[in-house]
Write a sequence for this structure.
């Protein structure tokens, strides 16, 4: 177990979140430097995810580190029946940091417990994806100039969408107001509403993606409504277009409003929104590079602002 | 008082009596205690009348005193259970089971996509609610009610 492992966004307190955001901003200004010279990072993708893997590998490469790994578990020993435990133990002999994606939930937590090498979770099934949350936070911070006292509207699949759950928890330090816009089947789960209640977070729940909600928002976080979540296909057809954002819906929105989406989108944001300066989802993806550079350096105990190792083990 | 009367019936000289187990949780409790591996005499009462619970279960184990951690595992499925330690026909200790903060290796995670169901490893749950009991998987964060917990 390494204390710099990052498995869940809940592993970070407010100061650690802010420190990471500050370093993400630093990397946006200075993306290329040799501070990982001599470091080897493993990217173990037991499940393919091109976007996340390329983002992590670019982050390492731009900082002068080297990458080993795989992105198709069928070519590895896990296809021969090797346990995750043994794979992690083996890889730990070779590298300074493990970045892993796995289709099983809890896999990254387990991996972090079997090795002293830091582990960064790049997604474990439907469970956690903390680097996505960091890039979402950084995108909000960057576009709004602050994190405190913002009104954030989450739209679409709030039941299964892990990105909205993690973002909700990370924002809890910053006095947000949430609007949860979804059909009844896909509303925010009870445990997260309870979390809001316990932390004194204001929220509204509605099925209606109304002009009032849009015009009062600082951030609209769109998510994809997935067909496989519905047992009744007619219900899916009815619901999917209710939560589509079109450009004309933004006519009276706030100047500072930005539209976020974890991507890939299907039809929940119409293409005519892309040219609106309030559309931020493509820039949001680029912020993932800087957020991941910050996460990698933290995991290795390297502080880019001092450019020397902190007291890592 | 009823507890005492039943103890007299069993006439346990030394050992442990676990009383006030809801009937629905009795056989899970038997499994958690590993009773089937004991070679001392054990009396199991099922669907006995109870003022408190309606129907209750009771387990009387001769010549065995379980350690506290083992007994407290029962709290997960039977928070009402009462433990009596018997020495020389006298109740020398009587207490309610207490739920531990973490439960290791005795509950199966209900999430089939949880790593614990796919690797040879111990499960680990964090108690997140006491009344009613709720536990959350340390690995996949799946939450389940204590009464629905599947005992390994």
């Amino acid at each position: 177990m390494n204390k710099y492992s990052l498995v869940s966004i809940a592993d970070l307190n407010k100061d650690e979140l802010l420190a990471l955001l500050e370093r993400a901003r630093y990397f946006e200004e200075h993306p290329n430097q040799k501070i990982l010279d001599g470091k080897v990072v493993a990217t173990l993708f037991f499940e393919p995810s091109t976007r996340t893997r390329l983002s992590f590998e670019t982050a390492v490469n731009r900082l002068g580190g080297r990458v080993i790994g795989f992105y198709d578990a069928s070519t590895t020993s896990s296809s021969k029946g090797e346990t995750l435990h043994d794979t992690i133990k083996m890889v730990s002999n070779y590298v300074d940091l493990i970045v892993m994606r796995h289709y099983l939930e809890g896999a990254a937590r387990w991996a972090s417990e079997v090795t002293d090498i830091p582990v960064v979770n790049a997604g474990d099934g439907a469970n956690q994806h903390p680097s996505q949350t960091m890039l979402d936070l950084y995108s909000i911070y960057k576009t709004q100039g602050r994190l405190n006292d913002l009104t954030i509207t989450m739209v679409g699949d709030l039941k299964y969408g892990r990105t909205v759950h993690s973002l909700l928890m990370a924002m809890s330090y910053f006095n947000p107001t949430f609007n949860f816009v979804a059909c009844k089947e896909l509303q925010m789960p009870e445990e997260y509403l309870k979390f809001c209640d316990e932390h004194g977070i204001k929220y509204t729940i509605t099925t209606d993606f109304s002009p009032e909600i849009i015009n009062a928002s600082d951030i609209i976080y769109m998510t994809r409504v997935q067909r496989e979540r519905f047992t009744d296909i007619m219900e899916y057809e009815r619901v999917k277009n209710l939560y589509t954002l079109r450009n004309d819906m933004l006519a009276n929105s706030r100047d500072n409003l930005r539209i976020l989406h974890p991507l890939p989108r299907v039809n929940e944001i119409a293409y005519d929104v892309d040219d609106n300066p309030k559309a931020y989802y493509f820039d949001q993806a680029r912020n993932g590079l800087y957020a991941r550079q910050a996460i990698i350096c933290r995991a290795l105990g390297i502080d880019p602002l001092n450019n020397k190792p902190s007291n890592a083990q | 008082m009823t507890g005492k009367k039943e103890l007299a019936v069993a006439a346990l000289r030394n050992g442990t009596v676990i009383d006030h187990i809801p009937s629905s949780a009795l056989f899970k409790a038997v499994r958690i205690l590993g009773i089937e591996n004991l070679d001392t005499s054990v009396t199991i009462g099922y669907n006995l009348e109870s003022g408190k619970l309606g129907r209750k279960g009771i387990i009387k184990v001769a010549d065995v005193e379980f350690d506290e951690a083992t007994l407290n595992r029962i709290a997960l499925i039977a928070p009402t259970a009462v433990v009596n330690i018997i020495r020389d026909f006298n109740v020398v200790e009587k207490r309610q089971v207490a739920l531990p903060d973490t439960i290791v290796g005795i509950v199966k995670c209900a999430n089939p996509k949880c790593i614990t169901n796919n690797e040879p490893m111990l499960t680990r749950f964090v108690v997140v609610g006491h009344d009613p009991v709720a536990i959350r998987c340390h690995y996949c964060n799946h939450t389940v009610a204590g009464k629905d917990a599947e005992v390994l």
User: Anything to note?
Assistant: The interface with chain B takes residues 83-85, 102-107, 109-110, 124-128, 191 of chain A (CB under 8 Å). Chain A has two domains: 9-130+288-308, 131-285. The mean pLDDT of chain A is 93.
